[in-house]
């Protein structure tokens, strides 16, 4: 089993920045991909960014490209999401997720139904 704990959410003004962290514990060696998803009020949960545990380029939803950066520190079992130029529409609960399946392309980890483990989420609120 793998446990995921997010941190770093909060209230920020539009144009500001936040960095989310996701600490993984347990059988972390079983993880092949990790990512961030978000759910805005009244909306379905959507993919934001994913990264492979080993190598390869990250993959992003178009609306965050150029503003968000996902990175990993395998020694710390932590994945980060640096969010810059935040907009009110980025307001959501952000969830960290991990996949224990080896997939041929990083983009395949954008499917939330393929993720095996989930954190409880951290709230990001962007005020206008």
Average pLDDT number: 95
Could you tell me the number of beta strands?
11
Q: What percent strand?
A: over 45%
Q: Quickly give the structural class.
A: mainly beta
Percentage of residues in helical conformation: under 10%
Distance between the termini: 40 Å
Main sheet specs:
7 strands, mixed
- As an assembly, this protein is single chain
> Which stretches of 5+ consecutive residues score pLDDT under 50?
none
- Rg over CA atoms, rounded to whole Å, is 14 Å
- Strand/helix succession: EEEEEEEEEEE
How would you characterize this protein structure?
Helix content is 0%, strand content 49%. The protein is mainly beta and 128 residues long. The strands form two sheets. Strands 2, 4, 5, 6, 9, 10 and 11 form a seven-stranded mixed β-sheet that branches. The N and C termini lie far apart (40 Å).
List the helices and strands and how they pair.
Elements: E1 2-7, E2 10-13, E3 18-26, E4 33-39, E5 46-52, E6 59-60, E7 68-73, E8 78-83, E9 92-99, E10 117-118, E11 122-127
Parallel strand pairs: 2-11
Antiparallel strand pairs: 1-3, 3-8, 4-5, 4-9, 5-6, 7-8, 9-10, 9-11
Give a quick rundown of the structure.
By secondary structure, this protein is an all-beta fold. It is 0% helix and 49% strand.
Fill in the keyword field for this structure.
mainly beta, seven-stranded mixed β-sheet
């Amino acid at each position: 089993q793998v446990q995921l704990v997010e941190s770093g959410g909060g209230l920020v003004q539009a144009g500001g920045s936040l960095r989310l962290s996701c600490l993984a514990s347990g059988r972390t060696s079983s993880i092949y991909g990790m990512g961030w998803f978000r759910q805005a009020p009244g909306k379905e949960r959507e993919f934001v960014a994913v990264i492979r545990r080993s190598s390869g380029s990250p993959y992003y939803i178009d609306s965050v490209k150029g503003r968000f950066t996902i990175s990993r520190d395998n020694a710390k079992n932590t994945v980060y999401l640096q969010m810059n130029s935040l907009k009110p529409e980025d307001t959501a609960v952000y969830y960290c997720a991990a996949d224990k399946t080896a997939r041929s392309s990083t983009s395949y980890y954008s499917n939330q139904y393929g993720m095996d483990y989930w954190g409880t989420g951290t709230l990001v609120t962007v005020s206008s």
